[in-house]
Amino acid sequence: MDVHVVSKTDNNTHATFSLPTPTSPLAGPSSLRIRPSLLSLTSNNLTYALLGNQLKWWDAYPVPSNAPTPYNDASAWGIVPAWGFGTVLESTIESIAPGTKLWGYWPASGHVVDLALKHEPDEPSTHWIEVSPHRQTLLALYNRYLISTSDDETRHAWEASVRPVWQCAYVLSAYVFTPDPASNPAIHPYPGIPSVKETWTSADADLSRAVVISLAASSKTARAVAHNFTLRPTSGGPLGLLQVTSAPGPIQSAATALKPHFATRAVDYTSLDTEEVAQWIAALKPAKILVIDFGSRDGGFEAAHKLVSQDEVLAKAEFVTVNIGYQQKVYTMSDVGAALASAAEHSKIQFNTSPVIEAILPVQGATKLFAGLEKAWDHWLENREAAAPDLQLVWGEGVVGEKGIEGAWTRLTRGEVKPEEALVFRI
Ligand SMILES: NC(=O)c1ccc[n+]([C@@H]2O[C@H](COP(=O)([O-])OP(=O)(O)OC[C@H]3O[C@@H](n4cnc5c(N)ncnc54)[C@H](OP(=O)(O)O)[C@@H]3O)[C@@H](O)[C@H]2O)c1
User: Fold this and answer.
1) 166-355, which class in CATH?
2) Where are the domains of the chain?
3) Residue with CA at minimum distance from ligand 1 atom 4
4) Which ligand 1 atom sits closest to the C-alpha of 43?
5) pLDDT tens column, 171-224
6) What is the distance between the alpha carbons of residues 388 and 230, in angstroms, rounded to a whole number?
7) Which InterPro entries match (predicted)?
8) Atom 9 of ligand 1, nearest CA residue
9) pLDDT tens digits, 282-322
10) At how many degrees (to 10) do helices 163-171 and 220-230 cross?
11) Cα-to-centroid distance, 178 and ligand 1 (Å)
12) Which atom of ligand 1 is nearest to the CA of 296?
């Protein structure tokens, strides 16, 4: 089995090695032995490494104890998790037979792993929760596995590469910025964590008189927000969506093809300097300007802030920034310091999908939450060519070498993965 490890202190440094397949019996009841079989990599995986200590992502799949030196040093090396499908090899769960495919959180690696899964009666029948003690430091989102009911590899590839970050967009649009608080309550962008906003009211969630500026609009997460906005009732807003990206052509095509009920415009970063873009926003007469930053390129946020703050009309609107993600690169300590300073200076509100879902579950129930989510995800799958006309599945094979996880990790750390690429791997 090929294993891929990343240096915890310098995410540019990574390595592969081989281990024998485990032969020990499964630990007990509710156990599965699984081989990651279809994985994806996006900029999101760089975040798992960047914040792996803080958000415990390194805890998901510790480097196996029989790894060779120096990779057996857990303080120095870790396994970055990745979304996708695993195939069950052995099972002590009666209803999950060998050969079953599960969607969820796997090692970005080729080694076989054991899971302990439990099904809760109030959860949808295909949802199982990981209950191993070492996984309880993780946020709940990463311990949820779904049994696949499809054998369609292309569908699986989109579910591996887009659905994980698309979920973020769904809860952001349907709950954090709910268009209908009576049905879906307004949920704080990062419940349970000290924030510049201690409470989150229906007024905070209201986009009916807002223009949204999406930065790094070609990221899969931002594309998913644009898609979810089109599913909102007209009364829920926004008035307009300005998508700022290095790839305005395809993003504008998607914006038009999805036939949104709001005004849309896709521009490159340099256009944020132009009077004409400020006038486009001002013509919509927003009471609120919401910037959602998915990991904009250098200077992107500052340019958006300048556009609004230096315009006499726009400066009167309420200015809110929600921070979702980071650039496609390995952050240095000084980059991290600059990001934190900018967040403090501009009162940016951090968003985190997992605590949002955890806050929705007790008030809404799993059945209602996931029924709404599945319906909207099916809409994305059915309308994929409109929602992301340029996005292509780029298939790789295995772990080792240029075509595998190893080569893709190098490309991600160098910011070489293009907006139109959805990297997927048959392992
Ligand atoms: N907070 C949460 O709960 C949450 C949930 C989901 C995702 N995220 C985060 O959101 C971010 C985006 O994730 P993703 O998987 O959607 O990303 P992705 O599909 O890989 O897209 C990355 C985008 O980053 C932009 N970019 C910025 N700097 C770049 C550079 N130096 N080189 C290349 N591209 C660069 C590009 O957009 P432009 O060309 O348009 O600038 C590119 O399309 C990640 O940081 C992820 O962790 C957070």
Assistant:
1) alpha beta
2) 2-162+391-426, 166-355
3) 324
4) 20
5) 999 999 999 999 999 999 999 998 889 999 999 999 999 999 999 999 999 999
6) 13
7) DUF2855 (IPR021276)
8) 325
9) 999 999 999 999 999 999 999 999 999 999 999 999 999 99
10) 50
11) 24
12) 27
